[in-house]
């Protein structure tokens, strides 16, 4: 999702810290990934634990984005920017999933009878 390397390659070159009052009639790029993360952090436990009524996080997200947009001047145009890099949590979960998958495969391999293992090993060696 997004454009890989956008924040490192392009945005950091043109990024400037300014007061909101200085942004009239200016095109503003906003880190949408940051907004998404901050809006979901407010009730992340409810969402993860699938607590009944946790659907409210959609409303919380929308409210957070609305509040952030209201802080920007109406005359400015807003671009929501998503960097294509994977989020650190996503990278960690992907790695953990790969490790667990390898562990499960090894356990299944060890649970197989030796004759089946030999047959599988020889069929892989022929390829």
Automatic annotation (TrEMBL):
SUPFAM superfamilies: PIN domain-like. Pfam families: XPG_N. One of its GO terms (molecular function) is nuclease activity. Coiled coil: none annotated. Residues 1-65 form the XPG N-terminal domain. InterPro entries: PIN-like_dom_sf (IPR029060), XPG_DNA_repair_N (IPR006085). Transmembrane segments: none annotated. This is XPG N-terminal domain-containing protein. It comes from Prymnesium parvum (Toxic golden alga).
């Amino acid at each position: 999702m997004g454009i890989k390397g956008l924040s490192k390659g392009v945005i950091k070159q043109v990024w400037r810290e300014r007061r909101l009052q200085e942004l009239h009639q200016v095109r503003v790029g906003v880190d949408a990934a940051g907004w998404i993360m901050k809006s979901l952090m407010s009730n992340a436990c409810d969402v993860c634990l699938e607590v009944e009524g946790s659907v409210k996080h959609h409303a919380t997200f929308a409210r957070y984005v609305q509040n952030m947009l209201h802080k920007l001047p109406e005359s400015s145009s807003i671009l929501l920017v998503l960097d294509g890099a994977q989020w650190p949590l996503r990278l960690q979960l992907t790695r953990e999933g790969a490790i667990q998958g390898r562990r499960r495969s090894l356990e299944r391999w060890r649970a197989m009878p030796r004759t089946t293992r030999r047959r599988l090993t020889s069929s892989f060696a022929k390829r």
